[in-house]
Amino acid sequence: MTDTDQLIDRNRRFAKTFAWQDLAIMPKLATIVLACLDARVDPTHIFDLDPGDAGVMRNAGGRVTPDVLRDLGVLGFLAANAPGLTKMQPELVIVHHTDCGMSRLASPEVQHALAERLGLDLHVVETMAITDPALSVASDVEMIRQAPGVPNGFLVSGYVYDVASGVVTEVVAPGSREAVA
Ligand SMILES: [Zn+2]
Questions:
Q1: How far is the CA of 88 from the centre of ligand 1 (A)?
Q2: How far is the C-alpha of 121 from the C-alpha of 104, rounded, in Å?
Q3: 163 alpha carbon – ligand 1 mean position (Å)
Q4: Distance between CA 69 and CA 66 in Å, rounded?
Q5: pLDDT > 80? residue 86
Q6: pLDDT digit string, tens, across residues 6-60
Q7: How many A from CA of 62 to the centre of ligand 1?
Q8: Would you tell me how many other CB atoms lie within 10 Å of the CB of residue 98?
């Protein structure tokens, strides 16, 4: 039995008592959490989310990548054109964490090897490394605030989750995007 088989078994048990059919497509909290895909760092648990509470985006490190920016732009566009949604205050919560696997990219040797293997620009690999999650999350919040295409109304904030204590600490308080010139 593969781990995937186990997941399908778990789904069958989940579906037997399924009761979420009436949840709305828009989350109750008008919030998107961006976090690392690390199995210890699931926003559903960290923020005690119920089904339908918030959107969650995850990638390696919880980083603001071109794909994340594109998705936020698409979501903002769809929300702006959906009746009744313009009154909502959308928020984006970015969470980096201690003991992140992306810290292994801090080594110049690893950076060079990875850049060569994947055909990536060395600078891109360097910026993927997380040595201090407070610094990287602050940098990513700033990137969101400056990025064209992300809806101006977004309140963006940055936090660090400590995998040793379970505590989330604020690094950048919720604030609006800078107006893009
Ligand atoms: Zn991580």
A1: 30
A2: 17
A3: 10
A4: 5
A5: no
A6: 999 999 999 999 999 999 988 999 999 999 999 999 999 999 999 999 999 999 9
A7: 7
A8: 17
Q: The tokens 């959906």 sit on which residue? A: 82
101 alpha carbon to ligand 1 midpoint, in Å? Answer: 5
Return the structure tokens found at 181.
């010139």
| Domains parsed from the chain with CATH numbers | 27-174 (3.40.1050.10)
How far apart CA 117 and CA 75 sit, in angstroms, is: 33
Q: Ligand 1: distance of its center to the CA of 80 in Å?
A: 32
Ligand 1 centroid–CA 41 distance in Å is 8
pTM, rounded to two decimals: 0.91
pLDDT at 84: 63
Distance 85 CA to ligand 1 centre (A): 32
Structure tokens at 62: 């919880």
